[in-house]
Design a protein that fits this description.
By secondary structure, the protein is an all-alpha fold. The chain contains 17 helices and no strands. Helix content is 78%, strand content 0%. The chain starts with a helix and ends in a 21-residue tail after the last helix.
């Protein structure tokens, strides 16, 4: 529960809340469109830097990374709440994104070293699904507090620190567990991840349309502010539903699960184009997208753990970095296409890319060969 809450905080309440509160921030601080885009790009870079640190350090320093994730996210949120100018707000928004990058590999390592969760893929899926409750809470805060966005960031910061403290207290590493593996995996490990890396990159590219321009599409189609915020809540509700389907998805296996979830992202992205004038159908499409994307990231964790269980934290960091890089690429491509071909064609193109992400799951990678005497299975 604490791990799920930390993901909800670092992802849903801090990193992904930026886009939801941005219009009100722009009105008060005079933040321009170009500056807002630069902040988003900088946040992605810092997120990747945090995940890269987790790639090397999570197996040996999981608790320290949890502390780092909480502090960077909370300081970023407090800084945004107190920001007197757009420049200061942007600096803290960028810094706060490191919390999410640090949290994911750290939590994989924490769950793997605790006896009660080590052999439970469902535990990983549930914790990773914390993004959903975070998005729901953020949307509800927006409905209740806006235009007072500063108070929303204060609440996010306090919540992050509290749940991180609970997680640290609850962490009970198994003293009999095998020692952590070396920081840098061998070349065979990277080779075994070829297909899953390609899948993560494609899904990142394809999902960028909804993450970055989904709310704009709804507004341009005539949906009011309340409906567009409700769509955000619906997206979070869909992500939260991953907790309910965790056992069923675990029974499917990582590759079949990936094909199902990436396919759902593709269908939902296309459906959002077809139903923007119907509030109910748009909310259903957003919920399906939220479930598909969040469940897909859980499938990535299961996939890399299936290849090499002992290096699952490193694999998670690498795959999440790849997904984020794909989102940055996709956001740029969709942003360039929209003025030329319009929202519907750009979103349908993104849906095709998400559909292509299912292809690498067709063939099964062989697990990394372990040297004699290795404790990894």
């Amino acid at each position: 529960m604490a791990g799920t809450a930390l993901v909800a905080a670092t992802y849903g309440l801090v990193r992904l809340a930026y886009g939801l509160f941005l219009p009100d921030v722009q009105d008060e601080l005079g933040l321009g469109v170009a500056a807002a885009g630069a902040i988003s790009g900088g946040a992605s870079v810092v997120y990747c830097a945090g995940a890269l640190l987790g790639f090397f350090a999570a197996a040996r320093h999981a608790r320290l990374l949890v502390v780092g994730a909480a502090l960077t996210a909370a300081i970023g949120a407090f800084g945004m709440a107190a920001a007197p100018s757009g420049e200061v707000f942007g600096a803290f928004a960028i810094a706060g994104s490191a919390g999410a990058g640090l949290a994911s590999p750290a939590l994989v390592a924490v769950l793997q070293r605790n006896p009660s969760t080590r052999r439970s893929p469902r535990a990983q899926t549930i914790v990773n699904a914390g993004t959903g409750p975070g998005l729901v809470i953020t949307g509800l805060l927006a409905l209740l507090l806006l235009p007072n966005w500063r108070l929303a960031w204060v609440i996010a910061a306090v919540f992050t620190l509290v749940v991180a403290g609970i997680l640290i207290v609850a962490d009970r590493p198994d003293s009999a567990a095998p020692p952590a593996r070396q920081s840098l995996p061998p070349r065979s490990w990277f080779a075994a991840h070829r297909r899953v890396l390609a899948a993560a990159l494609l899904l990142g590219c394809g999902s960028a349309a909804v993450w970055n321009y989904g709310r704009t599409l709804l507004v341009q189609s005539g949906a009011g502010a309340t409906v567009s915020v409700a769509a955000w809540v619906s997206l979070g509700a869909g992500s939260t539903a991953v907790i309910v389907t965790a056992r069923w998805m675990g029974d499917r296996g990582p590759r079949a699960g990936w094909a199902i979830t990436a396919g759902t992202v593709a269908v939902a992205s296309a459906a959002l184009v077809a139903v923007p004038n119907s509030a109910l159908l748009a909310l259903i499409a957003c919920a399906a997208f939220g479930w598909g994307y969040t469940a897909a990231t859980g499938a990535l964790i299961a996939w890399t753990a299936d290849i090499d269980p002992a290096r699952a934290p490193s694999g998670t960091a690498l795959l999440f970095i790849t997904t984020t890089l794909g989102q940055a690429m996709g956001a740029g491509a969709v942003g360039a296409l929209i003025p030329v071909v319009g929202y519907p064609i750009a979103f349908l193109g993104a849906a095709l890319v998400s559909a292509a992400a299912t292809v690498p799951a067709v063939r099964t990678n062989r697990a990394v060969r372990q040297p004699a005497g290795s404790c990894a299975r």
